[in-house]
Each structure stands twice: as C-alpha cells, then as structure tokens.
Write a structure and sequence with these properties.
globular, 494 residues, mainly alpha, 16 helices, 67% helix
Length: 494
C-alpha cells in the first residue's frame, strides 16, 4: 500500500509540473546531430531534400524553356540519344557475346583437359592466347564507334561497357586458369615422387579476412603452408579449388550458365560462388530502374542548361579575345561557373552507377554483397578516395594487378603499375569521349602518387576536416578544368 501511495503522489507531482508556467527543461550533456562525435546517422531526410531540390531545378528549367522556345527541352543532347540507337543495341549485344567466344571454350575444353606439360596448359599457351585475344578484342570494340561515326553519347556508353566487360573477361579467364593449374597439381600428388611439392599458391582474395588463408591471399603471398607434408599440401590445394562458402568446387563452375550469371552480377572479380538473397525484392528493383532514368534525365538537364551554354559563351569570348590577360580572366570565370554544375553532375553520376544501376543488377541476380562504395565523401586524401569511391574497380586492381604483380616486382613497383594501368584506362575513356589524345586523364591520375606522399607527411596527416576540404576543392576544381579543356578543344555535340 505504501508503494501505491508513493506512486499516486509522483503522478500528482508530474501533473503539477505540466501546469507550471515555466516547466523545467531537460538539460543534459549532449552534442548536435552534425557534430563529428555524434552517434546520429539517419540523414535520409537530407537525401530526400537533395532530390526535391533537383526536381525544382528541372521543373523551373522546363518552364523557362517553354516560355522562351515553346518546348520544355533543348535539343542538343536529347536528340543524340536516338541517333543510330539500333546500331548501339546490336553492337553491344555482339560485344557481350564476343567475351565468351574464346574465353569460355578455352577454359572448358582446352586448358583444363590437356595434360600437364602440354603447350596449351594455362601457365604456357593458354595465358598467352587469352592475353592476345583480350588486346585484340579491346582494340576492335574501341574502334567500332569511330568506324561507324557514332555520337559521343553512344560512344561513351559502349566504351564504359567495353571496359567493364574487359575486366570481367580477364578475371574469369585468369582465375579459372589458376584453378586449372591447381587441379593439375592436386592430381599429380597421386604420384608423390614426381609431383611438384612447392607450397600452394592462394589467389589474391577480394575482401580482407582474419583467417590465415585470406591474409595470405590479400597480401598476394605465395605461401599457403610451410609444411612439405603431402597431406597438408593436398588439403591446401583442395581448399583453393572450393568456393569460400563450400557449396561449389572447380570444375563444376565451368558452365555457360555460370559465365552468363557472372556477366550479370555487379562485380568485376570472378568467384566460383557468391552469396545470394533468397528472393528478388520487386518494389526495390522497380525503384532502382526508375531512379536510373531519373538520374540520366537530371544529368542531361544539367548539361543542357548549365554546362553547354557556359562553354559556348567561353568559346566565343576566347575566339574574340586577343589579349592573354582577358583570355585568362575568361578562363577563370568559366571554370568558376562550371564548379557547381560539375559537382552536381559528379554526384548524379555516382548515384546512377553505384547506387541504382549496380543496385538494380544486384537485385535481379539476388547478389547479396551490395558494398559498391564506402564513405568516400569523408576522404582526406586520394589514396583513401581510390579505395572507397569505386569498390568493384578497386577490388579488381588490387586482385589482378597489384596482387598478381607484387610477388614478382615488390610493393612499390606494384603500386606504380596499378596506378599506371588505372591512368591508361582513364585516358582511353577521356580520349574516346573527346576523340583526341591529350593526356589530361593520364596526368591527373598519375598526379595522385606524389599527392599521396605529401598527404602522408606528419604535418598534413591527421587533420581530417582540413584535409577533407582540401581534397574536395582539388577534386571539384580538377573536374571543372578538365571538363573545360576537353569541351573547348572541340568535342563534337552533333
């Protein structure tokens, strides 16, 4: 009874507190939601506000165009999407099919079935044949848009898809080629006296793991076991032939269905088996598809209304300006006008690729690993950004370029080679877009190496906010200047 009486008194006291003219305020030791030390992470309202702002921009632009021209859209870029559209569809279908013409039969019928020591094993003729085919394949499909005189929009799409398929083809061939050599070594252990008893080579893994095998793979170490015991070596080779989830073992993965599934999966690194979701979330898939076309629409509006007019005006002024000082002022003003639209284009490009297109393919294939990017917006240096901005490409380079070359040439040289391959890929894309080779993409990519060295100095490292601001300023300024020079050199818009 005493407890009930105390509870009644407490309720009456709380009611009296509510009736007070100035009720007490609940103060505590707390930080704001935007404070770096805050645990608050739910900012989806700002994400929605971002889309609302872009929708307002698009609607306002269309209303202005209707008032000025009678049409909601300008025609310079929109019409390019329909030029030779069937040519693009047929060429893209043939390009996808051509990835398997040599690669899949080579793995299924040649390198695995020939006896050890034959010229057509993977370690000898198989790898050489695959490498030659990849180079010829890349040259052919890069040249196709030039030969057919496509618009730059179609050329950009085909080129980006070409680079994606090249990496997929390389990963599929080289990983299965490695497994074919591993299977031959395992079979040879039936006769231990003549078998190769060197330690098993673990192919570099895609993700880090605390297990010893994964640590060995991610560091590209060629050492899987220090024991020469036949049973230990046999066990290590068998583990390498089995998927990490333990459901599929090489060569049961060598099927056409498996290859087609890999082409559709949103990853550039081939594995025997991937984690899968139990079913497709159809509403989520539909939202990803709608968002993809929404981003493309907003990208086109941004380019039509806020980038091309500025570049056209700059071209006219530069052509009529004899003074170097006036030309530099025009350049500075143009770049400043391009900063914001290029930043918006950068964010929309990120969203359409890494959130919506890859997310849609992940949903269609029930691909469970949706880690296509990390928090690159918090990057404080270019090394961190390169790891977190594009996780699929970073994983491919770390596995098939850095991881494959480090045991042979060392860590420093492998890092340089990785950046060199990445820089060449960027320059190929930029050169095909503008139909000129100027080296901007290559130089900008390779400039990351000295910048990373500077950003690791004690005086610079550790200043998170300052370094993040410097990183973003250099990123946006670099994108705007590269874009200006590319367009001003005569990129075709017809």
């Amino acid at each position: 009874m005493q407890c009930l009486s105390s509870a009644r008194r407490q309720v009456r006291a709380e009611q009296q507190q509510r009736r007070r003219l100035f009720p007490p305020t609940d103060f505590a030791h707390r930080v704001s939601h935007f404070d770096p030390t805050s645990d608050y992470r739910d900012f989806h309202g700002f994400f929605n506000l971002f889309w609302i702002g872009l929708a307002i921009m698009a609607i306002t632009t269309m209303l202005r165009n209707i008032k000025d021209t009678g049409s909601p859209f300008r025609a310079r870029i929109w019409t390019l999407f329909t030029v030779k559209l069937w040519h693009l569809a047929v060429a893209d279908l043939l390009m996808v099919a051509s990835t398997a013409i040599v690669t899949v039969p080579l793995q299924i019928s040649v390198v695995r079935r020939v006896p050890a020591g034959s010229f057509w094993t993977w370690a000898r003729g198989g790898m050489a044949l695959q490498s030659v085919y990849q180079v010829a394949w890349l040259v052919f499909w890069v040249a196709v848009p030039f030969a057919l005189d496509w618009a730059w929009t179609s050329q950009v799409f085909l080129l980006l898809h070409t680079m994606v398929l090249l990496m997929k083809m390389h990963s599929y061939a080289f990983y299965n080629g490695h497994l074919s050599e591993t299977e031959k070594r395992l079979t040879a252990l039936d006769n231990p006296n003549t078998a190769d008893r060197a330690p098993a080579y673990l192919y570099p893994t895609v993700t880090k793991s605390s297990s010893s095998a994964s640590q060995s793979g991610s560091s590209s170490s060629a050492t899987a076991t220090n024991s020469n015991d036949i049973s230990d070596l046999r066990s290590a080779l068998a583990r390498e032939l089995t998927s990490p989830m333990g459901n599929v073992t090489y060569p049961h993965n060598l099927t056409w269905a498996n290859h087609i599934d890999f082409l559709l999966c949103p990853t550039l690194c081939y594995e025997i088996e991937y984690p899968r979701l139990p079913r497709i979330d159809w509403p989520k898939l539909a939202s990803k598809i709608v968002a993809t076309f929404g981003c493309i629409f907003l990208l086109t509006v941004t380019s039509e209304e806020f980038i091309l007019p500025v570049l056209d005006d700059a071209s006219r002024r530069l052509a009529a300006t004899p003074s170097t000082t006036d030309a530099l002022l025009t350049l500075a003003e143009t770049v400043s006008w391009l900063l914001f639209p290029f930043m918006v284009s950068f964010l929309l490009t990120f969203l359409v690729i890494f959130e919506y297109i890859l997310g849609a393919f992940a949903e269609m294939t029930r691909f469970a690993d949706r880690h296509f990017y990390s928090d690159w917006w918090n990057s404080t240096d270019w090394l961190e950004f390169s790891r977190e901005w594009n996780v699929p490409v970073y994983s491919f380079l770390r596995r098939h370029v850095y991881g494959a070359s480090r045991p042979h040439i060392g860590k420093v040289n492998a890092t340089v080679i990785t950046f060199l391959v990445s820089a060449i890929g960027h320059e190929i894309v930029m050169a095909c877009i503008a139909k000129k080779i100027r080296g901007y993409g290559f130089v900008c990519q390779m400039m990351q190496l000295p910048l990373m060295v500077v950003q690791q100095l004690p005086a610079v490292k550790g200043r998170a906010t300052t370094n993040n601001v410097i990183f973003w300023c250099s990123m946006i300024l670099g994108l705007s200047m590269v874009g200006f020079f590319r367009f001003s050199e005569g990129m075709s818009l017809d």
